[in-house]
Amino acid sequence: MSNYWAISVGINHYQFLQPLHFAQSDAQSLCESLVSDAGFLPEHCLLITDTSPDLFGHSTDPTHENLQYWTTVLKDKLQPEDGLWCYFSGYGICVDGEDFLLPIEGDAARVRETGFSVRSLFQILRSLPTQKILVLLDINRSSAVSNEKVGAQTATLAREYGIPTLLSCRPEQFSHESPAHNHGLFTQALLEGLRSHQCSTLSALEDFLKTRLPELCDHNDRPLQDPVLVVSDPEQLYQVIMPVNWAETESWVAAESNPFAIEDDLYLTAENETSFDNFVAQPTIMGATAELSSYEEIPEQFILDPVQVEPEPVPDLTLDEPIDADPTPLVSPVPKEPEVQDQMFWERLLFGGSAILLVLLLGVLFRNWSAFVGGQQTAKTTTPEAIASPSPAATPSAQILNEARSLIKPTLASDASKAIDRARTIPASDPLYAQAQQDIDRWSRNILDIARQRAVQKEFQQAIAAAQLVPKDRPQVYADAQKAIQQWRKAR
User: Fold this and answer.
1) C-beta separation of 160 from 233 below 8 A
2) Which whole-number Å values give the CA distances from 73 to 78, 395, 465, in the listed order?
3) How confident is the model at residue 406, as a pLDDT?
4) Which of 10-14, 46-50, 317-321, 385-389 ranks highest by mean pLDDT?
5) DSSP assignment of 405-420, as one string?
6) CB atoms closer than 10 angstroms to residue 375
């Protein structure tokens, strides 16, 4: 029986770049879903994020060196019939036509020195014993760093090396994150596809993503994002890409314990650091992540940088021992003493009498309600308390905000501008004012994203027209828009 392995990398807190919000949760949730919904063994999923704990005395930070190692460590473990998923969620950049994935120390000013070239990634993957490899790249890019299109060279390399590759968007588009889902939109669609049990082959996964990802963009007020699948052989589309083939399986029992489940707050650790044979999964409280990591030196034949490292034995990645669950309750019930029961009796009696009195008073108020309302009607319509009393759903401001949101279209900057103007009519004294300002901030960024997408398509005049709609009272976005406008005017 063939085994399936996964390397899942997610980086939030870059040393030299603006932090991402959900790359870590993207990587962890993918491992969780691969175990729960696709039949992967927990010990075959390697999770690498910037909050991973040290393991076997080595750092598991997603540095250039560690990423290079994790893509080669499985060489002695993989068999020709095995499968491998290689997933990355983080920044990517294109410099002089060459694509790079940025590790945690990636510096846009020194990309060639600090970045991990996609060509190097494919070279390492192609050296592995198996041909059944799937690369998934949820790349976030910033046009402020580079205006070159990330993904074009990656697609070319995927065909050249014969490795099926899924890109989160087209080179001229942007990959978006969503607070509503706590994921990037591409990864959210990918997770939904795995949970649907309809994506056992690349063809089925591609069909699902091409339908679902644009829907998520629309629902989250984000510009259109189309997934891209690159294959070198049409037969790769119909190969099963996971242990469980849902086209032939009606039911399947998932692993009893999933160490990557976020709600369980677990990660894997080791009691014996000399061998993976004695590897034990234990619950440990962390922030909100579950990591499985290790590090050894890279075999010399796989070193791609000038710095050479002496090889060391690759540890055995087998995990046989289950996670122990302690059924002992944290708090035991304490029998009540007789005097405590007597005290509770009198408290219940007093509470019951108060409740009866309250019911009587409400009855009197109800019978005289019309007179009370008539006498107080004028005061109600003039006091500040009365103005704020209606529920938000019934207020004119809520209607205004809903109307503004209905104007948003994924690719039209003018509609976003209209929505902003509509939301501005909500006064600062209104309870929904803060929400309206948050929407205006998001729509302002959307306008700039739309303008940038037009610019990468060489539609500079339309890009300038869109960027000019960014409101001046959003200083950071407005400054970015003005800087972009100057660049686009020179490029026309």
Assistant:
1) no
2) 10, 60, 50
3) 76
4) 10-14
5) HHT--TT-HHHHHHHH
6) 9
In 143-247, the DSSP E strands lie at 165-167, 177-178, 183-184, 228-230
Nearest to 485 by CA among 466, 472, 476: 466
pLDDT at residue number 332: 33
Residue 439: both structure tokens together: 């929407």
What is the domain range of residue 346?
339-388
Q: Is 330 within a domain? A: no
Q: If you average pLDDT over every residue of the chain, what do you get? A: 75
The domain total for the chain is 3
Query: For residue 391, what are the contacts with CB-CB under 8 A and spacing of at least 6?
Result: none
pLDDT tens-place string over residues 449-482: 888 878 877 788 888 988 999 999 999 889 999 9
Q: How far apart are CA 34 and CA 6, in angstroms?
A: 8
Query: Tens digit of pLDDT for each residue in 271-292?
Result: 333 333 333 333 222 222 333 3
User: Phi, psi (5° rounding) for residue 358?
Assistant: -65, -40
Report the SS3 class of residue 135: strand
Cβ atoms of 103 and 91 within 8 Å: the answer is: no
**Residues 472-475: contacts with CB under 8 Å, at least 24 apart:** 474/440, 474/441, 474/444
- Pair (416, 348) in one structural domain: no
CB 128 within 8 A of CB 142: no
Same-domain pairing of 426 and 476: yes
Instruction: Tell me if 137 sits within 8 A of 92, measured CB to CB.
Output: yes
Confidence of residue 293 (pLDDT cuts 50, 70, 90): very low
